[in-house]
Write a structure and sequence with these properties.
mainly beta; Lipocalin; eight-stranded antiparallel barrel
Length: 254
């Protein structure tokens, strides 16, 4: 009973660990690596994106614009009004009444993958469209031992089935070399996943292969991997034989 309770609580924690229940979380620093010097900050909460742009005006001086209410407008598109603001000088007392916002145009962010997007905006009649991606300046290290769980769906090799399983997870990571061992707490089956890890902003991804003690072998991809001091959470896909498996995997750090 204690193990069942712990597993149920872990599944709940995995869902709560996802910083955005709406879907893929866009919250991050975004840029175009071919145009270093400007960029965008995105904060994403449920179906709304708050966008801050730091760019340059016609005089070459820094400008920043905000779109505080980009709403999901179908698919993976967020759109709304863009504003330029003015306010009190930083060296004196802050007077909220002196803050003014002027609508200058519109902005839209279209997610093209978990780590890439198209940014389109207009300022006083000047339209701009840019390809952007998450900006990385550190690689997350997920090395550690976790009390974990998997929830997923298997199809393509018989009737489509869903499952939930508790697992002990152990991760070893050295730069881009990533190895994870999973021990199923229900049947004792052990699987080892090895592959290449990459970082895109706050999210990671792993592409590799796996081998299990029950004889199953195949390929596995983990993506939208987010790590913290509490644990990690990721989505995954796996292929073995005619089977296609997809779901979520994660764990709380021991």
């Amino acid at each position: 009973m204690k193990r069942l309770f712990a597993f149920v609580m872990l599944l709940a924690a995995m869902q709560a660990r996802a910083s955005n229940p709406w879907g893929t979380d866009l919250s991050d620093m975004w840029w175009n690596p071919d145009e270093s010097g400007w960029g965008a900050n995105i904060a994403h909460q449920n179906e709304v994106v708050f966008l801050t742009l730091y760019v340059y005006g016609a005089d070459g001086h820094a400008r920043w614009y905000v779109a505080p209410d980009l709403a999901a407008s179908g698919g993976l598109v967020f759109s709304g009004s863009l504003y330029e603001t003015t306010g009190p000088y930083l060296g004196g007392p802050f007077n909220p009444a002196a803050v003014n916002a002027r609508a200058v145009g519109t902005a839209a962010v279209t997610l093209t993958s978990a780590s890439t997007a198209t940014l389109a905006y207009s300022v006083d009649g000047v339209g701009v469209t840019k390809s952007i991606q998450r900006q990385s300046f550190r690689t997350a290290d997920m090395t550690g031992t976790y009390t974990g769980a998997l929830v997923g769906t298997v199809e393509g090799c018989g009737a489509t089935t869903t499952f939930a399983a508790s697992a002990g997870l152990s991760i070893s990571q050295a730069s881009s070399a990533f190895t994870m061992t999973e021990v199923n707490q229900g049947n004792g089956n052990r699987c080892t996943y090895s592959g290449t890890y990459s970082q895109a902003g706050k999210m990671g991804a792993m592409n590799g292969t796996f081998t299990c003690t029950n004889g199953t072998t195949g390929s596995m991809q983990m993506f939208e991997m987010e790590a913290g001091y509490i644990g990690f959470l990721a989505r995954y896909t796996a292929t073995y034989g005619n089977c296609r498996e997809s779901g979520k995997i994660g764990g709380m750090k021991q």
